[in-house]
């Protein structure tokens, strides 16, 4: 009986040894020229959606671009999307352009003609004012849309395919820059690579091996707020 006990104890000790096939931690996926999470720069929208790499419904379709979250990301906000559609529907700029091409009639000789001319002038002035306000409202909705998109991460598609890829909060570039990185580290990593501040106020630097694509970094205080890659030449709808 004692010998049997010894055998059982020895067998238990052997089974507690670590397996040579134990999983080895893998390095985090880089957010860079190869894309991220199976999404590649310029890929077709249908291909991206078919693979389940993105949520099924867009979070914005403003300007004809379709923005999608990563699975588990923010769901579409019907109220925000309706507000975007309402602003976009106020296409007054075209009418304003038509007015500029149609010379204003000169005051007529009679009082009636002069009154009609004055009425048209007032209507035209109001249309121009409305067009200016509509343009400002649309610009505001675009800025709001862009902030929400890069903060949450996801993919935006235009007529030529994927036009912008925004990194999730935990992703980093090959140089180790991601949301929350110090501004000093951003400059150390990319100043020598030609980083500049774009017209939209974001720091921009070319993406290696991808013509027309640039990294865009938003900055809040002394920290990086978000990271994305965008093809500025790619158009929406």
Task: Give a structural overview.
This protein is of the alpha+beta class. The chain starts with a helix and ends in a 6-residue tail after the last strand. A hairpin with a 6-residue loop joins strand 5 and strand 6 (213-220). The model is unreliable at 1-18 (pLDDT under 50). Strands 1-2-3-7-6-5-4 form a seven-stranded antiparallel beta sheet. The protein has one domain. It is built from six helices and seven strands, in the order ααβαααββαββββ.
Write the layout of secondary structure elements.
Layout lengths: L1 H14 L29 H6 L15 E4 L8 H12 L3 H9 L9 H42 L1 E5 L2 E6 L16 H8 L5 E2 L5 E4 L6 E8 L2 E9 L6
Antiparallel strand pairs: 1-2, 2-3, 3-7, 4-5, 5-6, 6-7
Helix pairs in contact: 3-5, 4-5
Q: How many helical elements? A: 6
Instruction: Give the ordered list of helices and strands.
Output: HHEHHHEEHEEEE
Share in β-strands: 15-25%
N- to C-terminal separation? 82 Å
What's the quick description here?
By secondary structure, the protein is α+β, with helices and mostly antiparallel strands. The chain has 6 helices and 7 strands, in the order ααβαααββαββββ. Strands 1-2-3-7-6-5-4 form a 7-stranded antiparallel β-sheet.
């Amino acid at each position: 009986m004692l010998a049997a006990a010894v055998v059982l104890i020895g067998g238990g000790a052997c089974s507690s040894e670590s397996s040579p096939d134990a999983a080895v931690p893998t390095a985090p996926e880089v957010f860079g020229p190869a894309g991220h999470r199976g999404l590649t720069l310029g890929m077709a929208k249908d291909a991206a959606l078919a693979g389940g790499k993105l949520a099924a419904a867009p979070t914005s379709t403003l300007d004809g671009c379709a923005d999608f979250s990563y699975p588990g990301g923010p769901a579409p906000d019907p109220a925000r999307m309706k507000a975007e559609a309402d602003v976009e529907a106020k296409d007054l700029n075209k009418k304003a352009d038509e007015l500029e091409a149609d010379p204003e009639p000169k005051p007529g000789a009679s009082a009636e003609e002069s009154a009609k001319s004055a009425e048209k002038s007032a209507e035209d002035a109001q249309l121009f004012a409305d067009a200016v306000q509509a343009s400002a409202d649309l610009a505001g909705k675009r800025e709001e849309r862009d902030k929400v998109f890069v903060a949450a991460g996801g993919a935006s598609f235009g007529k030529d395919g994927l036009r912008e890829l925004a990194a999730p909060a935990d992703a980093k570039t090959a140089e180790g820059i991601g949301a929350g990185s110090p501004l000093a580290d951003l400059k150390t990593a990319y100043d020598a690579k030609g980083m500049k501040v774009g017209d939209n106020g974001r720091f921009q630097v070319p993406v290696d091996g991808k013509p027309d694509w640039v990294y865009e970094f938003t900055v809040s205080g002394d920290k990086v707020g978000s990271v994305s890659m965008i093809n500025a030449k790619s158009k929406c709808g």
